[in-house]
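Components:
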Amino acid sequence: MRGRKKDRGPLPSRRQAMAMMGSCALYPWLRRPIDVLVQALVDGVIHKAQAATGAPAPRNYIYIALPGGPCRWYWDMPLNPYADAPNAHPMVGTRLGADGKPAYATILVDNNKIPTLASPADFLRMPSLWGANIPTSGGGTVEMWRILANMVMIRGIDMQVDGHALNSNKQIRPLDARPSLTGLVADASSARIPAVGSVGGNSPASVYKSARGVGQVRLSSTKISDPLSVILGPFNRRGGEVSSAYLGRRQAMEGVIQAALTSLSAYASSQNPGSQELFAMRHEAQNLITIGVAEVVAGFAVLKDKYMKLVSASSRVMDPAMQIPGLTDRVVPGPAGSGADALGPFQSGTDGNFVRNADLRTAVHHSDGGAYPGAQIEELAGGFAIAEILLKNGYSSSVLWAQGSVDNLRFDGASDTEYGFDPHFGGVYPDMVVMAFFYRALAACLYEFSLSLGPALFKETVVHISSEYSRTPEDTGHGTQHGPRTNCCSIFSGAITKPFVVGNVFEAWKDGFYTKIDANWGVAAPTSIDGANQVLGIGHSTSSVAELLRVARPVTNASSLVRESSGGVVPAVELAKTGGQGERS
Amino acid sequence: MSRRRAQLAATAFVLALACGKSAMEFSEQAVPTPFGGADAPISQATEKRLRLMGRTYVASVLREIFGPSVESVIFKQVELQNGAFGGNPCDPGRRFPSATNPDEPIDDIRDCPDFTRGFVDYARLVSGQSQTELVPVGTTGRMGYTVRACDQIVSQDTAVNTAIQRIGGNPSVKPSDADVRAAFDAFHPGRVPSEAVVTALKGVSDAGASALEGWRFLLATLCYSPSWQIP
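Structure:
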């Protein structure tokens, strides 16, 4: 093209004009000049970005959203991980106390459990659920605390504003003007389908944004029956799409067609250096289509079944090996009495509906589920199955999905069969039982996922779990409210070899409306960062995830709270503290 | 000067006036780091990735060459695959022919915020949450859809005959050198192929079992080539 420029005088070729106008220019002469200008500027920006050099390949990124904002004090938001005086709000329970009411209790995780916790003084006090067993795909169980070895928790994140979609989206794309974490990973990925996002259930997949122009394949849900045929659609030639006679004739021409494509590649490379990469992609695509992806697509059902069984086994909360200490190792009584005070803590998630099971454990542990008895979380099983296939086969580098609810519950006396993650009317007792089930099932899937990836791939993978916020307990126990000052997230990776918690929270906080008791439920308090006291924001958590992913920070002026050293991932700030008193102004 | 060439020139002139630069300099001038400050390097491994044309352009080229009989293939394999092909982002005013009923166009809201809920949230639309990449790059997935589209198209005699007619060839005679150049031009308007490319493409058409087969696989080869999707 450059060689012909002289022959054309001042006139641009169609290709040159197109280069200015970008991809929207079907008929350039119909476009307004301002459109052309804007497109050309965009092109220039992209071109400059493409000139950037440097850093190693990113890690694979799995983001699991919990839309709605469930209570996190059961699981990845320990209220006082480095001491054991949390001053927990009376409705913030992880188990039943001696009086049968919610009680916050912890288990000690030290070097007797995780050797990388170097000394007896090096420990974590985790919510009591971590003392439960999780099922394994082999049919046995292991202690849930084992997955802590590869886990970092960030708590005390102040989202500053309320709002579900707004805060859900910020977890991966805190600033509209910058790419999402998913997009940043996809930009640096050489995988065939760089990014996959399930948009169902108010998922932040809808805010995917690349800086490079790498698209995201979208699923409507991880619950659809055949998601791999959608994701691998480019390579999944349908029966009858072309006749076998055509394919036979086409195959006979393979040699000369390849020779011509090689010649076209050389020609294109002389015009546009780098286009040989496109021909390599084309060649790979052709091979995948020829070989077919039927086996990979079919593999989904097998893996989903594996994860469904883990979820189902997690629902067996009354089986001796699967009881949750302090919670389901005894009868969890239903409501006694009929007044609002008696029934309120047993609301089913819907205003005025109450769970009347004589034993609340039967809400999740029952035999009404067909092939998978008990409560179910199909999106969880589908999501992990998709992620395992795509990562192990090198198809994708970024997979995102959102958990909608816990399904197939048996709430006696209430019409609800599912329990969502925005439990305004989720009484403290059903919430404790259902969410303990959910988090244990999540832990079981994480454990299986990490084993399935194997050490090398798990080390190159970051699983990020977050939500718009944790919640504010109501003094009455009738439900919980949004807690935008209580956000937290957890990060799992084989690159993490020693667990820790960062982010400070107030030991005593008074909300003043729903919560009049001065107590702790994880409200953000200042943390020392870069020599100054700051309340953690979403920029700090996304910077921390970006640090482990090896991509640019979505918020450039927020420091990472973690860093990677030769010995593994270590805190870049002080470890979590719990103290002080605050009040909503 | 053809009308088409004149229009291109006029557009480029306007652009040059607006920017004080010649058209091609745009891709080479220094610009700020995208989206942030100096500490925000945006990825690395993709530095050699070329910008490609979007789904609208790809669809229009195939439509222009092969005619109306391939409309459903273009719709399914290209226009609906905005994640792979990028191009024009959420445009609630744009309508597609329905795959099931061509007489009832459907809104193109797949890329719009909240499209899964069946409506367009205009407030979020203006906040820039469009999913389709305006300036896309190549992925293996995109190439896969291209291959599938090309095979489905050239396997149809109607489409191949339409292309031959539009190129100015004769379906009863294997493509000549001039025909090969014309076919190349249909996919790469304004570009001149090297002699090596012409020879290699002629090798494909000569190897066809019949004249029509020669044309068919010449068109298939050109269709497969990512080169025509590079701006």
